[in-house]
Specification:
This protein is mainly α. It folds into 3 domains: 84 residues, Fumarase C, Chain B, domain 1, CATH 1.10.275; 231 residues, Fumarase C, Chain A, domain 2 (Up-down Bundle); 80 residues, Ribonucleotide Reductase Protein R1, domain 1. Helix content is 61%, strand content 4%. It has 19 helices and 4 strands. The strands form 2 sheets. It has a two-stranded antiparallel sheet. β1 and β2 form a beta hairpin. α3 packs across α8, α6 runs antiparallel to α7 and α7 packs parallel to α19. It is elongated, with a radius of gyration of 31 Å. It starts with 15 loop residues before the first helix and ends with a helix. 37% of the residues are buried. The mean pLDDT is 94.
């Protein structure tokens, strides 16, 4: 068992059970690069400030660089008996250069060290998530570009409501994802301050230069309160919240894909490479990816609740409870990243059944609002026009007709305002493409949305 760094205070070693319970290296080892990067910046500052000799600083930096290379190449494996990644790297450093390695931790605590490491690690991870979201937005935009004139029924309460284009439907998700990306980027801005130099909680008596370290590590500045520096995990909650919202959007889209794949809809068909079959029913083609995305959304929500619950009762400053932040935030972002990775090619390869979409739009009286608008534009009050349109729909249902097949004579029984031009006015294409208000389904409106998304990444 690796010897604890605080062994001088204790007369006996901790039990293996306590060591295993206390250990975090099994999940925080992924932060090794951030830990070494932060330690190199700290060592450089110690040498620059004369807190340790320049020779010792240079040797520590050289050795840490070699340790990083050895881990990356697989030459050095993690010791799972170590308490955490920080202790593992410090022990390896000391093992290689002896007493000089022990100088690295001068004017630093594991409290501000781990606070630094998780910020560095999440900054890189979240930046990668943002790139994935951008790529998925592009996928939705490209699919919308190819379906600017594909008419489908729009729904409210999962009932056919009004005709829209498939492009407009897809672009709704593109705008959701754009907001998701912006939330992540906002969280990155608030997180990008260095806690190093807060030490355990009270700062240090050494003449450190916190701004020097912050600048080298690419931070916008320093956390200005030492207790806040070591106890703040707001950024984990913010990032997890952004992830939960993004995952929710993926889940809503997945739910629609599941519906659209069914025989009852048949609006789209997933590529065979992104579907599964049944072990007993040979005819089945299942949208398992979408079902898993939907299921994993609950997992991401759980990670967010874990973080909120873990933090709600912790007094200042650092408490061991906060070790639980890593598994939750890592799992949260791993899950989202995995879902973003698989949804993109699934969307790119799915086949759109334009005929079925158009046929579905032709049913359900989704041009009834347009029928009412027709009367309004001829001078009738909307509520009166609404009632007449509803009565005509009821007549159609009783007589197995659609609005387009009602004889003009029958229309005129309801209102003398009806003339031959009513049929053109309630034509599905006309209903869809005359909606030219910004954000609507008309081709021009859709193109404006596409251009906006492409120019505002």
């Amino acid at each position: 068992m690796a010897k604890a760094m605080w062994a001088g205070r204790f007369s006996k070693e901790e039990s293996k059970e306590v060591n295993d319970f206390n250990s975090s290296i099994s999940f925080d080892s992924r932060m090794y690069e951030s830990d070494i990067t932060g330690s190199i910046a700290h060592a450089r500052m110690l040498g620059h400030q004369g807190i340790i000799s320049q020779a010792d600083s240079d040797l520590i930096i050289e050795t840490l660089t070699q340790i990083l290379e050895d881990i990356n190449t697989g030459k050095l494996e993690f010791d799972m008996e170590a308490e955490d990644i920080h202790m593992f790297i410090e022990a390896e450093l000391t093992n290689r250069i002896g007493e000089v390695g022990k100088r690295l931790h001068t004017s630093r605590s594991r409290n501000d060290q781990v606070a630094l490491d998780i910020r560095l690690h999440l900054r890189k991870t979240v930046s990668s998530i943002v790139e994935q979201i951008n790529s998925l937005i592009d996928t939705f935009v490209n699919m919308a570009e190819a379906n600017k004139e594909t008419i489908m029924p729009g729904y409210t309460h999962l009932q056919r409501a009004q005709p829209i284009t498939f492009a407009n439907h897809l672009l709704a998700y593109a705008f959701m994802l754009k907001r998701d990306k912006e939330r992540f980027m906002d969280a990155l801005k608030r997180m990008n301050y260095s806690p190093l130099g807060s030490c355990a909680l009270a700062g240090t008596t050494y003449p450190i230069d916190r701004e020097m370290v912050a600048k080298e590590l690419g931070f916008d500045g320093i956390v200005r309160n030492s207790l806040d520096g070591v106890s703040d995990r707001d950024f984990c909650v913010e990032i997890a919240s952004a992830a939960a919202l993004c995952q929710m959007h993926l889940s809503r889209f997945s739910e629609e894909i599941i519906l659209w794949c069914s025989w009852e809809f048949k609006f789209i068909e997933l590529d065979d490479a992104y579907s599964t079959g049944s072990s007993i029913m040979p005819q089945k083609k299942n949208p398992d990816i979408c079902e898993l995305v939907r299921g994993k959304t609950g997992r991401v929500y759980g990670d967010l609740v874990t973080l909120l619950t873990m933090l709600k009762g912790t007094p200042l400053a650092y408490n061991k409870d906060m070790q639980e932040d890593k598994e939750a935030i890592f799992d949260c972002l791993d899950t989202l990243s995995m879902c973003l990775t698989i949804v993109k090619p699934m969307v790119e390869t799915m086949r759109v059944n334009k005929t079925n979409m158009r046929n579905a739009a032709a049913k359900g009286f989704i041009n009834a609002t347009d029928l009412a608008d027709y009367l309004v534009k001829k001078g009738m009050a909307f509520r009166s026009a609404y009632k007449i349109s509803g009565s005509i729909v009821a007549f159609c249902i009783e007589n197995n007709l659609v609005l387009e097949t009602v004889p003009l004579e029958k229309y005129q029984e309801y209102s003398e305002l009806f003339t031959e031009d009513v049929y053109q006015y309630i034509n599905l294409e006309e209903c869809t493409f005359k909606r030219t208000s910004k954000g609507a389904s008309a081709v021009k409106s859709v193109e404006e949305q596409i251009n906006y998304l492409r120019s505002n990444k």
